[in-house]
Structures are given as C-alpha cells and as structure tokens.
Amino acid sequence: MNFNFKEIITASMILFAVIDILGSIPIIIGLRNKVGHIQSGKATLVAGGIMIAFLFVGEEILQLIGIDVNSFAVAGALVIFFLAIEMILGITLYKDDEPESASVVPIAFPLIAGAGTMTSLLSLRAEYYVENIIVAILVNIIFVYLVLKSSKKIEHVLGKNGLNIIRKVFGVILLAISVKLFAANINQLF
C-alpha cells in the first residue's frame, strides 16, 4: 500500500474544486424546490460508484481507443481550465438542458460525477497512487452527502455573496491545477 497523506490532501482538494458541490448549491436548491425532495444518499452512492469504476476502467477504455493517459491528462487540463474560467468569470461555456426531476441522474451524473470529474480522475491517476485517489473520492463523497443533506441551511448561512466568493476562490485554485497538469504532461507527448 502506498498511502501518502500529501497525495490524499492534494487529490481531495482537486476533486473538491472540480465537483464544486458548494457552487452547485443554487442548482440543488432549484431542483429541490421544483420536485420537493432529493435522494441524497442514493445520489451520493451512485456518484461515488461511478467515480471509482471510472478510476479503474477509464484507462482501459482509453487504451481500447488508442489514447494514452498523458494525452488524456492534457485534454483534461484543458477541460479543467475552461471549468475554472466559468467559475471565475461567472459565465457558462457549456449549457445542458435542465433536468425534469431531481433523481439520481441529474444529481449523481452529471452534477457530481460529470465530465470534469472523470477527466480529473484519469489525470490524477497519471500522477498519484490509486489508493490515495480512492480515499480522496471517499472524502469528497462524504462531504457531498453532507452538503446535499443540509443544502438549505448552507444557503441560508452563506447567502448568495458567500457562495459566489467560494465559487471564485475554487475557480482560481482549479485554474492553477489545470496549468500544473498541462505542464506536467505536455512534455510526455513529445
């Protein structure tokens, strides 16, 4: 076993920034108001399962279609870069249709375990040990569950300005992470 506290903390922070559950509170509140109830436990378990499964089979899927992890990490760095730009500037580069119900599908996927999260997992796998990434996923899944369960209280405490500040701070952190991922993997391609 290659448990490394620093890797766990770094991977946890990267996933926390990419999942952006605090930044998603307005979406979660809107869904809850629209349909009345969100199955927090079910959504959290499904999202965690998706992330762990993708961590293990994502690389094999890439090999099947002839893409190496470094190429995917560079592409992932670009996706994370644009997610960070969205968070910092408050713009939407990608708009998905609004879900009709707040079931597992809109919450677990793509809100929690979306494209950015999947890309980040494979990018992390290129740099960190798998067991540290799994611990980071579990830490984030616990946090996601707590946020889903108490989203109304969090919204009330932080207010709209507090949520905007948190979103922008994590956007800057995510931007720095994307630059680091890009720089670390671009050399491997040439």
From TrEMBL:
The keyword Cell membrane applies. InterPro entries: Multi_antbiot-R_MarC. The chain crosses the membrane at residues 12-31, 43-66, 72-94, 101-122, 128-148, 169-186. It is found in: Cell membrane. Pfam families: MarC. Its main location: membrane. It is a multi-pass membrane protein. This is UPF0056 membrane protein. It comes from Saonia flava. The lineage of its organism: Bacteria, Pseudomonadati, Bacteroidota, Flavobacteriia, Flavobacteriales.
